[in-house]
Amino acid sequence: MSYLFDTNDGARYLLMGNDAIVRGALEAGVGVASAYPGTPSSEIIENLSRAARERNIYVEWSVNEKVAVEVAFAGSLAGLRSICAMKQNGVNVASDFLLHVALSGTRGGMVLVHCDDPGALSSINEGESRHFARMLELPLLEPGDFQEAKDMTAWAFELSEELRSLVMLRSVTRLSHASGNVTIGKLPGTEKRAAFRYDGPLGDPDTGPVVTMPVPKNHLILQEKLKKAREAFEKSPFNTYTGPEKPELLIITSSACNLYSLEAVSLLNAGGRIGVLKLGTTWPLPPELIKKSLARADKILFVEEVLPFTEENVKILAAEMAADIGIKNFYGKNDGTIPMTGEINPDIVVEACAKILGIEYRPMAPEFEAAAQEMIKTLAPVRDLTFCPGCPHRASFWNIHNALAMDNREGFVCGDIGCYTLGFLPCGFNTMKTSHSMGSGIGIASGFGKLGQFGMDQPIVTVCGDSTFFHAAIPALVNAVHNKSDVIFILLDNSGTAMTGFQPHPGTPLDATGQELPDIDPAAVCRSLGATVEYADPFDIDGTQAALLRLLHEGGARVLIMKQMCALSPAKKGKKMFEVRVDEIACIGENCGCNRFCTRIFRCPGLVWDRERGVAVVDEVICAGCGVCASICPSGAIRKTEARA
Amino acid sequence: MKSGGMNKDPYNVIITGVGGQGNVLASRMLGNILSDRGYFVTIGETFGVSQRGGSVMSHLRISKSSAWSPQIPRGQADIIVALEPIEAIRVMASYGNDRAMVLSNTRPIYPVGVIAGEMEYPDLDGIRDALGRLTKRVVFIGATDEAMKLGNPILGNVIMLGAVAATGLLPFDRYDFKTVISRSMPADRLEINLTAYDRGGEMLLGPR
Known about the structure:
Chain A is globular. Chain A has a seven-stranded mixed sheet, with helices on both faces. A six-stranded parallel sheet of chain A has the order 16-15-17-18-20-19, with helices on both faces. In chain A, strands 9-11-10-13-14 form a five-stranded mixed sheet, sandwiched between helices. In chain A, helix 1 packs parallel to helix 7. In chain A, helix 7 links the parallel strand 6 and strand 7. Chain A is of the alpha/beta class. Chain A is built from 21 helices and 24 strands. Chain B has a six-stranded mixed sheet, with helices on both faces.
């Protein structure tokens, strides 16, 4: 039985945090679920889509995060419970609409799950999304373990309906992508009716038109909602305290840091000296609970990821309460006790507590540690990130790099977020020179392409993926075409949202549940804007480079679609296109004069250099059979033959 | 509840390797097996961009009483399962101790820096000796080579799980493994996975 369908109240599963959130939404009877994929949030909508038919849910991969919230909001207005999931920077994309949703209020329970990625394990930023709760004036919840991820998600819908407000629920990578035991609850019936009522008076939360005006009145109502949330949070069972009545040190923590803090107390065997206040409701903070907790100890340590959000909010309350609770010694990110950047772990918390309380703690015996450090220096060569074997991006950047080098005018590539972000590294031949938010490559290129009047004559190339194209690149491309910016826009079309697990997007013919949908052709979109459009297969090295060289000498907005399916795509089923081998007689090794061109420069993990024999060798376990390396050997020693079906 | 050879709580297992080796799948299989046996299991994983040729690591916490942090503290690993030899080195240096059991695959996956000639990949004997200086319990098995004989190198992860079971340190057996994979795998993959599991046990203990 899958946790998605199990009606056995009390059954126990080992669930990823994201799956626990999914189960919580199912137990709340969610009717609409939408998202744009982004690590570490993607599994939420992916797994809800598996339950879509049986649980009567509309599940959608939306074109971007802002539209995802708009779609979920429509569900709420029609009286359904709705959920929207995104990674931290997705909240930035959605924030304009969210500001207005806060002001207009919601009807059916609506929950925004936002998953931060402390340490940027799978992100190109280390954004903190909790500040949006304060900025947009929305209640914020943070589950402190896997069971709470389920329970708090289910409760968030009730809270949302009670307040008539969107509720934010924040997760982090080590909760979303970690797994723990969860006891499941009841599943409700699946009958749901949707209707939008708008014929009541303006300002009636159930029947009136839903607008943000009059703003002064609605802003006051929003503040009242926050007051109500504060009162509810004073009594919330999700704010817990573990430890002695009067500890020497009080840790205030939330989310995965709760587990690190408890572990640290255990490692230090300091359960009698340290108390842990785990907050599940982090905005607005419940002041009475904070007052009672701060009164417990004189030393307060904040343990949280990413920015000192709770630390700063508690300090404001502490200043207001100073007459009652006295002066406290605060430790946390602001004084450097906890690092301001990067992931937190149990060792960081142990070190902080040990320092504050003067406890001696050694995680390793000194001799062991010294020997281990010696070993790591000599025996563990670093694994730099690289494109997968058979990745079309390696071939694409090879082509772009070579074309720009042959063109010899210091051309460069602007990029954005996706696997192809690695194009700035040696695996992409250091071809990409700028990389920022979704769709920003073409926007930046549009700007560069207008700097000719200042003497800038470098060719401007920009790349983005097929999913990113729809997400945020189209307005920037419109801008480039309209303003006659001189750019080559390369669409790296690998047929899916590859980085996050092949979710469909508007250019693919399927929806989240595998049903057919009309696919939108990016080429037709580009042509309709007035750009010229050509296709190339990046695995065809000669053809693609010739096309690029020609385009480099044309003017205006030029689009080149480099189409080749991701090597990991489920549609490829791991099948090799070619059997690739090195002819060890033709490979003349060190005598070639190429100085190991294939391994030194091309750097595919599937092609290695055999030092003893002085020849290149294909690693049959790793090689994905794309055959591109056969085109690059100056001696023609790498041979490819069509793989047998 | 029999606790196998687990002599502390939480008992900590790290499965490490390189993206694409089936690291996450192995940790989920092991986690589900132990969760089925009634233990509290917490798994911390790295995946996403770290998968693209980078080192990957799953931390498993096994406890009779509660959920633990998804990150194992420094020096606290009890078993290190490495699908790639230098990943055993990396993990041992941060999470190892002189009682830890290291079970490593023999087949290297070269970092791109090695392929490009900028760094050297150590020889297997050197890796074995260095690990042996840190703990007496080091075992290498040719899991990927054996998996290729079974027709698919990805089975290396299941061979390693079979070898872990054969150490007797964790409280599970072939029946528990079969129960879990029957739930999660298509029926036609069951036989080959059980064969791989058995092969792992034989590689550790010799044929039975």
